Amino acid sequence: MPFIIDDEMLINTSAEVKMFFKGDTVAREGECSSFFLYLKSGELSVFNFTQDGKEFLQHKVIAGNFFGEPAVLLEKPFPGHVEVASEKATLVKFTRDRLIAFLLENPERMLDFTISVAEKSIRKSHSLKNIVFLNPEERILHQLRDYKKEHNCCPTEKMLISLTRKEISHMTGLRIETIIRTVKKMEKEGKLEIKSGKIYL
């Protein structure tokens, strides 16, 4: 469930609105921040680097969501590197102490914030379990269904999945050759559609 910010919240917390562009770094893995970050528009990629320098895409952040909240709450380093994936993105920066004070004064907003953090925690737990236990086809399907759910698409409606084969590879831990081969097999079996190279589910 996206966490919606309003004018009252922006004013009472003296929040700062900033514009970023594709490829800009928003947060670096291992750094601490005294700001809560909220994505108002655009899309972000959250990833880690392996020891040999390869990227592992954790997930994408879509508009209407905070990101990195546990690290800021606990005053710990960010667990991932965050970059702008869309052409541009608008972020809202909340000073940690001011946002916490606002939430304590507004219990309903505190509950909404807590639920949004809990939902993301559950999704990450499921994703980790799927990487460990599921076969390639099940991993890919789970990732595509999660994408639809995050974009509030009805499960029975077809939707363009705006993820590249490389991104799906990074998110599932599968080699890109495996992704390409498995997606083609799934298309033949009628489990998804491919139009002009794009995946629809």
UniProtKB/TrEMBL annotation:
Keywords: DNA-binding, Transcription, Transcription regulation. Residues 20-120 form the Cyclic nucleotide-binding domain. One of its GO terms (biological process) is regulation of DNA-templated transcription. Signal peptide: none annotated. Residues 134-201 form the HTH crp-type domain. InterPro entries: cNMP-bd_dom (IPR000595), cNMP-bd_dom_sf (IPR018490), HTH_CRP (IPR012318), RmlC-like_jellyroll (IPR014710), WH_DNA-bd_sf (IPR036390). This is Crp/Fnr family transcriptional regulator. It comes from Planobacterium oryzisoli. The lineage of its organism: Bacteria, Pseudomonadati, Bacteroidota, Flavobacteriia, Flavobacteriales.
